[in-house]
Design brief:
The protein has about 60 residues and is α+β, with helices and mostly antiparallel strands. Bound molecules: zinc ion (ZN).
Length: about 60
Amino acid sequence: MRRVSRPIRCPRCNGAMVYERFQDMLDLFYAWRCLNCGEIVDPVVVMNRGQEKKPKKRAMG
Ligand SMILES: [Zn+2]
């Protein structure tokens, strides 16, 4: 896995975040946790946010 060079900031409070391991049911995953407010940001979500969703043009008929 490649390291993220840019520092991750909390989307809520802009605080410092740490990359931690979490366990959800049976799944083990890594996510960013805010040291300030405890916000958990999934890296996948962050990636999705970076991409602008363009509305698909539907062909008529
Ligand atoms: Zn925060």
